[in-house]
Design goal:
Blueprint: E1 9-13, H1 18-29, E2 33-38, H2 41-55, E3 59-63, H3 71-81, E4 86-91, H4 106-134, E5 138-142, H5 155-163, E6 177-181, H6 189-194, H7 196-200
Parallel strand pairs: 1-2, 1-4, 2-3, 4-5, 5-6
Helix pairs in contact: 1-2, 3-4, 4-5
């Protein structure tokens, strides 16, 4: 990853494991300061401490569950309280659940939509106005190759990732740098918890 955000602040959701940690590592190596958020505060602190010691960057952590409707606002408020200007927003948090829809708990499906779709829109809407005002900022959305097809036993996950593959927010003449990445298969903790790895192997 380039040093484009060296000395600037990036916010990474889902930063306690998997792809979120890998992105944080790459950014830190380039000198980017980081706000890391996920549900597990102990794991976030461990990641943040390691990156700060290894790369000499500044870090903040904020524990938040994006399945809760108020979480994006809480994350945004945290950055305001700390006086941080977020120049790169990475919407990485997401999860799926393997199984037939009638057998998956209803709340699990609703939480999936909240994390994979609603929180992405909400966080983007919160941080975007300041990016537009200063005509500077970037947004990265992590989706999945499942977004390109209806996948058996993970149909809700595939659908929610399809919804995150947007061209970027409409905001007049200037738009932030934006991209959507759709990684392929990787064995990460989220896949283990969802039952995918057991099913795949």
């Amino acid at each position: 990853m380039t040093t484009e955000w060296k000395g600037k602040w990036a916010l990474v959701t889902g930063a306690s494991a998997g792809i979120g940690v890998a992105l944080a590592e790459e950014l830190a190596a380039g000198g980017t300061n980081l706000v890391l958020t996920a549900r597990r505060l102990d794991r976030l602190q461990e990641v943040a401490d390691g990156l700060r010691k290894k790369h000499g960057i500044q870090t903040h952590v904020v524990a938040a569950d994006l399945a809760k409707r108020e979480a994006p606002q809480e994350i945004f408020a945290f950055t305001k309280e700390k006086g941080l200007r977020i120049d790169l927003l990475i919407n990485n948090a997401g999860f799926g659940q393997y199984g037939e829809v009638p057998q998956v708990e209803t709340q699990r499906l609703l939480d999936m939509v909240e994390v994979n779709c609603t929180a992405v829109v909400h966080l983007t809407r919160l941080f975007l106005p300041e990016m537009v005002a200063r005509r500077s900022g970037d947004i990265l959305i992590l989706a999945s190759t499942a977004a390109f097809q209806a996948v058996p036993y993970i149909s809700t996950y595939a659908a929610t990732n399809r919804r995150t593959r947007w061209r970027g927010p409409d905001c007049g003449r200037w738009r932030p740098g934006r991209a959507t990445s759709s990684p392929g298969w990787a064995i990460i903790s989220a896949h283990i918890r969802s039952g995918w790895c057991r099913a795949a192997w």
